[in-house]
Design a protein that fits this description.
alpha/beta, 2 domains, 7-stranded parallel sheet, 6-stranded parallel sheet, binds nicotinamide-adenine-dinucleotide
Length: 503
């Protein structure tokens, strides 16, 4: 018997044993293509291509693992399988994830909403329907140089296993978009989801893996740690197979990822300001602001979080916002809501007071906020707004609620200055409503954000009404921008000296 056949038999036996040990959980998926056992294996040669023990315990789990170690081993094995199966398998994975996210948008949006209890069900569903706008394999066109000395090719090649951290605010959408981008580039991925949005994430991971295994024979291309914790985060970051991190979340996780010593692509927090000058169309600005700030109850990191408006157009803007369905709170109502929505700690030794957002209000409907403010509002109201000063907690905190503070400013310079201050140097997103090209340019230069949207709602920056592609992971402090398959590649150069140039 040849060595090849022995390997094949060993793998088939291991797979069968793994499946028997999984309480019948594998009954739904049968590979139409060659099963993973028949994938030719690479020999061990360094971390990127190193083989794993391929224990039967890694089989039949469809990506859902108890520990980071198991998940990383399985993902490493899947990375090698994907390498063998090539670009066609990457395309298949992209196609499967995009189609399934859209097809399951209703049920998956619902389980995510029921688990997290934040945001809006209709928008949770809508976000899953958008995964088709994430770029894919075609994004990875190689760069070529052709000259007297031959041809040089630079290819975008994978790293191996990517460790990905996802937020509570869009668990399945972030995970789905991340799988498309990461696997289109030839990598596999292990997720540590937010603990309050981990069950729904595991449902999607299992379903994706079942379909991917059925169609390609590749097992565990996207893995998840079933009960994520800080310990599993640390174990994932430390694991020898984890080559790269993708972190989507707030300031704490960005800091933690940067301290791991691994390269981290960080999609960090935002607090997007909007500046409105007197050259804008007030109706268009009001409609855009309402639609951006109310989307998923303002959970989006790109969502409009505070508005600075020139004093002499403030009343007109607010009038247009009221005419288009937003409800204005008076000063007493804003104050009442502030007391409920923030815990304010007085500053020490004459320092500034610190406001901490009350989690019970994050991503909640306007009806919940209105009740706390002591106002009755029409059902279906999308957004509340009210006038505040520039240092108000609603302005300074990334509050993620459908309540927008409006601040009057005396000049364009003050509007830009206050926008810059309230963005806190996150370099994330800023929005302007203006037809004055000098004001637009001045704000773009001063804010220096990753996304800068002019005369539209914030989601236009992700191709939703503006030009461009979508990702739910916008790498801000580390600078990769709106992530795409190239973000997860190593650039490798291949040089042919003096030949292959055809002219
Ligand atoms: P979060 O920071 O509480 O959690 C995000 C992820 O990080 C979760 O998986 C969580 O378990 C983990 N985490 C948190 N603190 C950690 C720590 N110290 N060590 C290890 N892991 C840790 O954020 P959230 O409330 O789930 O999501 C909202 C935040 O994410 C906002 O700040 C928002 O701006 C940001 N966000 C950014 C983007 C982007 O593309 N830039 C996209 C979505 C959300």
């Amino acid at each position: 018997m040849s060595a090849v056949n022995e390997t094949l038999i060993r793998d088939v036996v291991a797979e069968v044993l793994g499946r028997l040990g999984n309480n019948g959980a594998t009954t739904t998926a049968k590979p139409a293509a060659a099963p993973s056992a028949s994938v030719p294996k690479s020999e061990s040669c360094g971390c990127g291509t190193r083989k794993v023990a391929s224990a039967p315990a890694l089989r039949g789990k469809f990506g859902v693992f108890a520990t980071a170690e198991e998940a990383c081993e399985a993902a490493q094995e899947a990375f090698l399988q994907l390498k063998e199966k090539g670009i066609a398998a990457r395309r298949k994975i992209e196609e499967i994830v995009k189609a399934m996210a859209e097809k399951n948008a209703g049920p998956w949006g619902t389980i995510e909403y029921n688990e997290t209890k934040i945001g809006r069900l209709d928008h949770k569903i809508a976000k899953l329907g958008l995964i088709k706008l994430v770029p894919g394999v075609d994004w990875l066109r190689p760069d070529a140089r052709s000259g007297d000395h031959g041809i040089t090719l630079e290819e975008y090649t994978p790293f191996g296993v990517v460790g990905a951290i996802t937020p509570s605010t869009h668990s399945i959408p972030t995970l789905s978009g991340n799988i498309v981008n990461i696997c289109a580039a030839g990598n596999s991925v292990v997720f540590n989801a937010h603990p309050s949005a981990a069950k729904c994430a595991a449902v999607a991971v299992r379903a994706y893996n079942e379909a991917i295994y059925r169609e390609t024979g590749i097992e565990n291309i996207a893995c998840i740690i079933e009960k994520p914790s800080l310990d599993s985060f640390n174990a994932l970051c430390k694991n020898e197979f984890t080559r790269l991190l993708l972190v989507t979340g707030g300031p704490m996780v960005v800091k933690a990822a940067m301290q791991t010593g691994k390269r981290a692509i960080c999609a960090g927090p935002g607090n997007p300001p909007v500046f409105v000058d007197d050259t804008c169309c007030a109706t268009r600005a009001a409609k855009a602001i309402i639609s951006g700030a109310s989307f998923d109850n303002n959970l989006l990191c790109i969502g409009e979080k505070q508005v600075f408006v020139l004093d002499h157009v403030a009343d007109k803007l607010m009038q247009k916002m009221s005419e288009n369905g937003a409800v204005k709170l008076n000063a007493a109502q804003v104050e009442k809501l502030t007391q409920a929505a923030f815990t304010i700690t007085p500053g020490q030794g004459g320092g500034c007071a610190h406001a901490h957002t009350n989690k019970d209000f994050i991503g909640k409907d306007t009806s919940v906020l209105a009740q706390a403010a002591g106002i009755n509002i029409p059902s279906g109201t999308q957004l509340l707004f009210g006038e505040t000063d520039a240092m108000h907690p609603f302005v300074q905190e990334e509050q993620m609620m459908p309540m927008l503070p409006i601040v009057r400013v005396k000049s364009v310079e003050e509007g830009i200055e206050r926008s810059l201050q309230s963005e806190h140097n996150y370099k994330h997103t800023a929005i302007i409503h203006s037809h004055d090209v000098e004001n637009i340019t001045a704000m773009a230069r001063a804010l220096d954000t990753t996304l800068f949207v002019k005369n539209g709602p914030s989601p236009a920056g992700l191709g939703l009404g503006g030009e461009g592609y979508l990702s739910f992971s916008i790498a801000t402090p580390t600078g990769e921008g709106i992530t795409n398959p190239r973000t997860f590649t190593r650039v490798r150069r291949c040089v042919m000296v003096d030949n292959l140039r055809i002219y």
